Every structure is written in C-alpha cells, then in structure tokens.
C-alpha cells in the first residue's frame, strides 16, 4: 500500500494560493485541493470576509503555477452547476494542466449557502439522485461523440462536448460525502472516495464486497492526509 499526501487550501488570497501551490509541489506533495463554497461554514458559523473565489478559475491558477502536482476540488457542489457546464469546465482544466486534474464532485451539504442565495436545496435523497444523473451525463459527454439522456433532473439531446479530456478515458472522479447512498454512487462512478477516518472501517467492510461478478473488489490504495483528516479509497476497475 502506498501513501500519498495532499493539501486542502481554502480562504486564501490569489497570490497566496499561487505561492502555496508552488511550495506544496517543491516539498513533494502529491496533490492539492480546493473546496467549493460561497461561504466557508465551520461548526455552523462563517467569516463573511473570507475570500471565496470562483473555484474553476482558482484551480486554473494552481495549474498555471505548478508543473507536476495533481489538483482538483474537494468537492464541487453539483447543485451549483449544470452537469454540461461542469463537464466543459473540467475538460478545460484537464487540458490546461496537461492531464493533472482530479474531478471532485459531491451532492452539496452546506444549507446556509442555499438559504442566503435562494438556490434550491432538496432533501438528501434527491440530491444524491441528482448527483448520480449528473455523473452519468458528465462521463458520457467526456467519452462519447454525442449524448442523449432523459433523466428525472437532466435532459440532454444529441449533446456534444469537444475536445475530450487529456486523461483516458477521463480524469479520475473523486466523490465526497457520507452514508451508504454516496457509496452506492461511488461504486458506479468513482475512482476515489473521500471518507472520514472514524467511518473508514465500516465503509471498507462495504467496499471490499464485490457487487458484480465481473468487477474486482475495491482496495484501499492509499491515504490522503490533510487538515480535514480525510482518507482516499481508490477503487480500481
């Protein structure tokens, strides 16, 4: 089992973000991640003056400032973007970085941001179904010439996305969240799952059981250490 180390950076000024990304690469870190929030809630409160950038642009800054380190979002909130636009933005970042993108996506959890903006915040079961459909759309747009999809939440007809990602068949997908519902979606779509260490043993007991005869069991490939004390579980095809 290999161990990888990464950093989660939030609330940094632009120049500081650039410098920290370069320092992380020089120190030998494997990966760097940015959260996706309008405000950064910590234990129910937030500082209204903490910088909160467009995280697609912020990640472009990270990639332009570095040459080796992998980077992505931990994680993009699916409720804030249509999956076609998410797919397009992430393809752009994959090309900008020459194939260093980790595509982190989640269902959304911080209700305070939705209350202040009026963006709908459906119950968790609906958010998970939306995430599942969004990932179906995104992966299809990344790998097929045209995508037609008739879902509960998203509908595409002969949709085209070009160019395709640098990484073949697409960037690794990182899913963040909690609960068995998220794990079921991860089993369908994810390369990496972000979990909390206190849930690791129970989640591993689910992940090591093959769901289908033609698929290998999941394996814990490594740990990602950060201020969030999270772990990565890689599931190889």
Overview of the structural elements:
- The protein has 237 residues and is of the alpha/beta class.
- It has seven helices and eleven strands.
- The relative contact order is 0.14.
- Residues 208-231 have low confidence and may be disordered.
DSSP E strands, number: 11
From the spread of the alpha carbons, the general shape counts as globular
Average pLDDT level: 85
The CATH architecture is: Alpha-Beta Barrel
* Strand proportion: 15-25%
Give the full name of the CATH homologous superfamily: Luciferase-like domain
Overall tally of domains: 1
Fraction of residues in helix:
25-40%
Q: Which secondary-structure class do the elements indicate?
A: alpha/beta
Entry summary:
With 237 residues, the chain is α/β, with parallel strands linked by helices. It contains seven helices and eleven strands.
Helix and strand topology:
Elements: E1 4-8, H1 14-26, E2 31-34, H2 55-65, E3 70-73, E4 76-77, H3 83-96, E5 101-106, H4 111-117, H5 124-143, E6 147-150, E7 155-159, E8 173-176, H6 179-189, E9 192-195, H7 200-207, E10 224-225, E11 231-234
Parallel strand pairs: 1-2, 1-10, 2-3, 3-5, 4-5, 5-8, 8-9
Antiparallel strand pairs: 6-7, 9-11
Helix pairs in contact: 1-2, 2-3, 3-5, 5-6
Which keywords apply here?
nine-stranded mixed β-sheet, globular, alpha/beta, two-stranded antiparallel sheet, about 240 residues, about 20% strand, TIM Barrel, 7 helices
